[in-house]
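So, can you check?
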Amino acid sequence: MAANNETMMSPALEELVDKVDGSKFALVTLAASRARQLQDYYGSVQTTGRIAPPQYPSLRKILSASFEEISHGKIVRISADEARAREAAELAAREQAESLPGSDTMGAEDGVEA
């Protein structure tokens, strides 16, 4: 009789923990955060009456889908410092784009009286 090494959880927990720097806490936090994003998306689509195309080949629970995304490298964990650096870079790029001539984002012209 052949040994069956498959578990009920696929992808394997060990594989997932390795994807997030070896921390179970980081894995759970990342997966829960992504699951909430997916739930919010599907909830908003259902309230508008639109039909959401299936995003996953199988009908899986949302938390399982987030684990699957982590396993495939679609979702990665970044540190708080890196997140702050990205936000600062985005803000600087946005401010630079707004300071260019002709980049009035609100549509109002400066110095023109009504």
Remarks:
- The chain has one domain: 13-99.
- The chain is about 55% helix and 0% strand.
- Helices lie at 13-19, 24-48, 62-71, 80-99.
- The chain has a mean pLDDT of 77.
